[in-house]
Amino acid sequence: MNINRTGGRILVDQLVAQGCDRIFTVPGESFLAVLDALHDTPAIDLVVCRQEGGVGLMACADGALTGRPGIAFVTRGPGATNASIGVHVAMQDSQPMILFIGDVDRGMKDREGFQEVDFPAMFAPLCKWAAKIDDAARIPEYVARAYATAMNGRPGPVVLALPEDMLLDVAEALDRPRVNRVEQDALIEAASTANDMLRAARRPVAIIGGAGWNGNTAEIVEAFGVATGVPLVAAFRRQDAVGNDCPVYAGNLGYGPNPKLAARVRHADLILVLGARLGEATTDGYALVTPDHPGQSLIHVHPDPTELNSTYRADLAICADPERFANLMEMLAADQPAIAAGAEAHADYLAWSTSAPRDLALDLGPCVATMRERLPDDTIICNGAGNYSGWWHRYWRYGGYGTQLAPTAGAMGYGLPAAIAAALRQPDRTVVALAGDGCFLMNGQELATAVAQGVDMLVLVIDNGWYGTIRMHQEREFPGRITGTKLHNPDFAALARAYGCWAETIEATTDFAPALDRAMAEQGVRLLHLKTDVEAITAGTTLSAVRGR
User: Are 130 and 123 in contact (CB under 8 A)?
Assistant: First the structure.
């Protein structure tokens, strides 16, 4: 199309051309021309949220689910600063997202007008690309580049500022066609070298999950693992990289991993890293695998060349899509016998992920086991940050790619917005939002969005009355000197009912299963308020034990 249109109309037309079918927003006067264009665009579902932090996190989660950028629109100043959490999470999680920000008129630039911020400068450290569109005729160019930048290499967020008067300009603009992710072939020579290194290794492991991952990658990597017997180890909060029933799945790295798994990685003579960045959480502060990893060979496969040989010295660095590389490796491994290490590592994982009873009024371990018995294998588990998530990281068994939405950035308040995005994107699947009491109130207002959108989802609020993770750190560093971590909470079940949700409160382990059954028999948003004891600070230790050490 090459006709005269307003900037707002041109922008919405570009989003349709790129396949956008959903936008998350809190409306603002700075992009009224976009809202007006959306009035006549039934192809795009407009999800109106209650705070821009929820907008950003929903868009981030939507990008994680689809592989194409999740789209967010917010207004300048407060709207943009609130939404920045979603940009930060999308960057650290390597997820495609585009944040559009309504901005001040071009004629007001640099006067510190109402809510004026230099958005390219503000967001440059947080995203892959930040820019301002000053010419309506160039909107197609900027939007196409934003999609390409968000998806290619290491996926991530893009931020585009939209001056209010530019969106009202009438211009002649030539639409750009749909942009797709550029496929990066893995060189057969590099894959052959990697295969030879794996054959020669005595104790290899593969750390998997991350940039460019998709369902096909998961299937191919699982087949590769089974064919070779190499233990498949999930990077931090990438536990859905393969189905956890895979016979060589070894569990996940991150906070509080299985000690047997940590030992296996520490004593490996070859580490194949497929898609992961080897960030701080995955490597236990760059100590489990060190940047120079003496005595270990490192094969690092990543779609972004700037990630390779940056923090970690690679013995073999391969810039390629994980799917393409894994496909070559599976073919090359077809004629070699499988080693026994994968099956042994999987047995260790099964033992580690089976909960033992604890002397607690409400024990989360059996609650997770009950959920595993009653909920489908493809349930999508969404959580934010906090010690409560550790019970699900350890005891839940993820069914495969697309069943875990959890921020590697450790952002509190992520679980509920992510679950809303998942329930909208996958309405036929079971979606569970997990939140601690502190985590939930970061974005609990988005219950209103969930009810307004008519989504079907289960919310679990784990309430121990504290910012539990920080309380744990206080007890470790300054035993008995507790300041600033006690919480005064509302009645979460009553709060949920006020929003129009079905809700119950649970205080005993034996009450969980029947309450879960009642919840799953209902429609819409259901919330279970689980009141736990802060003494059981993690799935494996107590506050008393932390204080004693």
Answer: yes
